[in-house]
Write a structure and sequence with these properties.
Layout: H1 6-37, H2 41-68, H3 72-103, H4 107-137, H5 144-173, H6 176-194, H7 201-229, E1 236-240, E2 245-252, E3 259-264, E4 272-275, H8 285-288, H9 293-296, E5 302-306, H10 312-320, E6 325-329, H11 333-342, E7 351-354, H12 358-368, E8 373-378, H13 394-402, E9 404-416, H14 421-433, E10 436-441, E11 452-459, H15 472-478, H16 500-505
Parallel strand pairs: 5-6, 5-8, 6-7, 8-9
Antiparallel strand pairs: 1-2, 2-3, 3-4, 9-11, 10-11
Helix pairs in contact: 1-2, 1-3, 1-4, 1-5, 1-6, 2-4, 3-4, 3-6, 3-7, 4-5, 6-7, 12-13, 13-14
Length: about 500
C-alpha cells in the first residue's frame, strides 16, 4: 500500500473530505429544493436517486480515466472542477428552481429535473474521486485489497461524519446556500492539498466560495433584520430551521384594507395566516372550525393541539377561553421561534409547548395516562399537504382515544376531497377507534369532489351531546356537517401500510 508520506496523507485526506462533501451536498440539496418542491418522499427519492445515479456514473468514469492517465494532476483538476461547479450551483439554485417550479407542474418530473440540473454534475465529479485515489495509491496487486479497503473505509467514514455534521450542525446554523459554498470551499482546499500548496487556482476558488457564502449569509441576516424593524413588508424573508425552510410574507387580505402575515413551509400553499393588527382572530376558514369541539364538549378545560405552526388556534383559544389549558406539540422549535417573533405568540398561564414528534408524544402520554384531555386537535402536515403517515393510522387513533376523557372530542384537519382515497383511509382509521364520527367540509359543504380542508369530528362516546346553537357563529359552523351517507373506499391505514404520499399526490 502507499507509504505514510505526504502523498499518502494527501490522498487519505482527499478520500475522507470528499466523502463528507457528498453527504453534506445531499443534505443541503434537500433544503435548497424545499421552498420550491417541498420535502415530500417524492422529493427525497428524486434527490437521492439522481445523486446515486450520478455517483455510479462517476465511479465508472473515474476508473476509466485513472487507468488511462493515473496522474495526481488529473485528480486535482477533478476536485477543483467539483468545487467550482458546487459554487455555481449555490449561485444559480434560486432562479433554476423558481423556473422549474413554475414551468413544470408535475411534482415527480419537477423534482427529478431539479435534482439532475443542480446536483448531477458535482455528484459525477465527486464520484470520480474514489476510484482515482485507489488507482494512484495502488502499488501492487498483492496489497490491492488493503488499499481498496483503506480508502473505501476513509470515504465511508467521511460520509458518516458529513451526514451528522450536515444534519445536526450545519443546517442548524447556516443557510442552505451558504452550506453549498462551504462545500465548494472545502473541495478547493482539498485540491490545494493535492498540489502541495503551490497552486493558484484552488486558492482563487476557495476565496470565491467563501466570499459568496459570506454574501449570501449576510443577505439573509439583513432581510430578517429588515423584517424585524417593521410589521409591514413588501417582499419575503426565509428562515431556515433544523426541520424546515420557512418563508414569511405579507399581503392585503382579500376585499379588505387589513394585512395578513403568512407562514409557508411548502410551495403549494400557506400553513398559517394571521391578521397583523388582530393576531388573536382566526383568518383561515378551517381554523375557525376548531371551535366546533366546544358545542360537543361545553365544559372542556384541557386541550391538546398536535401541530403548532403559527399557533393561530392556541392563541385564539387563549384569548377567547382564558380558563382553558392548552398543550401544544410542535416538532420544530424553529417554528415556535418564528411564531414568537412574527406571529405574536406569547406565554400564558395554562399553556405548555412540547417540541417533539407528535406520535412519540401520543405514544408516551397514552401509556402514562397521567392527563386526560377533553379535546384533541390534530393539524399536522409535512410537505405537499401530506399528513405524516404515522399520524393517520388506526394504531395512532387508538392511542389518541386512550388519552381522552370518556366524553372527549377529537378533531383532525385533512386536505382532500370526500371521494379521495386519502380521506377514506383516515376516516376509516378514526372510525376504528371512535364510536361517533362526523364530517365537516370547511368551504364546500355540499361537494364530494372539491379538494378542501375537511374536518373530522369524532366523539369518544356514542351520543351527540350538543344542543341547537345559541349564536349565528356556532350555527354556521355546525351547518357544514355532511349528512349524506359516507362509506370509506379503502380500509383503515395501519402502521405497517399507510401510503399517504401516493394518495395525496393523486388528489
Amino acid at each position: 500500500m502507499v507509504s505514510q508520506n505526504v502523498n499518502g496523507r494527501a490522498l487519505s485526506a482527499a478520500s475522507f473530505l470528499c466523502g463528507a462533501c457528498v453527504m453534506v451536498l445531499e443534505m443541503a440539496g434537500s433544503r435548497v429544493m424545499a421552498p420550491y418542491m417541498g420535502t415530500s418522499l417524492v422529493v427525497w427519492t428524486s434527490l437521492i436517486g439522481i445523486i446515486m445515479v450520478s455517483l455510479t456514473l462517476g465511479y465508472w468514469l473515474g476508473g476509466r480515466v485513472a487507468d488511462k492517465r493515473p496522474e495526481k494532476k488529473i485528480l486535482y483538476y477533478i476536485i477543483l472542477a467539483a468545487a467550482l461547479v458546487t459554487a455555481i450551483v449555490g449561485a444559480i439554485a434560486t432562479p433554476v428552481l423558481d423556473a422549474l417550479s413554475e414551468g413544470v407542474r408535475n411534482v415527480y418530473a419537477a423534482s427529478v429535473m431539479a435534482s439532475a440540473v443542480l446536483f448531477a454534475v458535482p455528484s459525477v465529479l465527486l464520484g470520480m474521486v474514489s476510484p482515482f485515489i485507489v488507482r494512484l495509491a495502488m502499488n501492487n496487486v498483492i496489497s490491492s485489497g488493503g488499499t481498496v479497503g483503506k480508502f473505501s473505509a476513509l470515504s465511508s467514514a467521511g460520509s458518516i461524519i458529513g451526514t451528522f455534521l450536515g444534519g445536526f450542525v450545519l443546517i442548524s446554523f447556516f443557510s442552505s446556500g451558504t452550506i453549498l459554498f462551504m462545500v465548494a470551499f472545502v473541495l478547493a482546499l482539498v485540491a490545494l492539498i493535492l498540489r502541495g500548496g503551490k497552486a493558484v487556482l484552488p486558492v482563487i476558488a476557495a476565496v470565491f466560495a467563501a466570499a459568496c457564502g459570506f454574501y449570501f449569509e449576510s443577505a439573509d441576516i439583513e432581510r430578517e433584520a429588515k423584517f424585524m424593524e417593521t410589521a409591514e413588508i413588501s417582499g419575503e424573508i426565509t428562515v431556515e430551521t433544523h426541520y424546515n425552510t420557512i418563508k414569511i410574507m405579507e399581503r392585503a387580505a382579500n376585499g379588505t384594507n387589513l394585512r395578513i402575515r403568512i407562514l409557508q413551509t411548502d410551495p403549494l400553499g400557506a400553513q398559517s395566516l394571521m391578521y397583523v393588527d388582530r393576531p388573536d382572530d382566526l383568518y383561515s376558514d378551517y381554523t375557525k372550525y376548531s371551535d366546533r369541539a366546544f358545542p360537543y364538549k361545553q365544559d372542556a378545560k384541557n386541550i391538546l393541539m398536535l401541530g403548532g405552526g403559527g399557533y393561530c388556534v392556541p392563541k385564539h383559544i387563549g384569548a377567547t377561553r382564558p380558563d382553558v389549558a392548552v398543550d401544544v406539540v410542535e416538532l420544530d422549535p424553529g417554528i415556535t421561534d418564528v411564531a414568537r417573533k412574527y406571529f405574536n405568540l406569547t406565554d400564558r398561564p395554562g399553556q405548555r409547548i412540547f417540541h417533539e414528534d407528535a406520535r412519540m408524544f401520543v405514544n408516551r402520554e397514552s401509556e402514562a395516562g397521567a392527563r386526560k384531555y377533553d379535546a384533541v386537535f390534530e393539524d399536522v402536515f409535512g410537505s405537499s399537504y401530506n399528513i405524516p403517515f404515522h399520524m393517520t393510522t388506526a394504531e395512532c387513533m387508538a392511542k389518541i382515544r386512550a388519552m381522552m376523557s370518556d366524553d372527549g372530542v377529537f378533531v383532525i384537519n385533512i386536505i382532500s376531497s370526500l371521494d379521495g382515497e386519502l380521506f377514506s383511509g383516515i376516516y376509516a382509521s378514526v372510525a376504528s377507534a371512535f364510536p361517533t364520527v362526523m364530517i365537516y367540509p370547511a368551504t364546500s359543504p355540499n361537494s364530494i369532489r372539491a379538494r378542501q380542508n375537511i374536518m373530522i369530528v369524532a366523539l369518544a362516546n356514542e351520543n351527540e351531546p350538543y344542543r341547537a346553537a345559541g349564536d349565528d357563529y356556532t350555527a354556521s359552523l355546525l351547518s357544514h356537517r355532511w349528512t349524506n351517507f359516507f362509506e370509506p373506499k379503502i380500509a383503515a391505514f395501519t402502521d405497517a401500510f399507510a401510503p399517504v404520499e401516493k394518495y395525496s399526490l393523486s388528489l
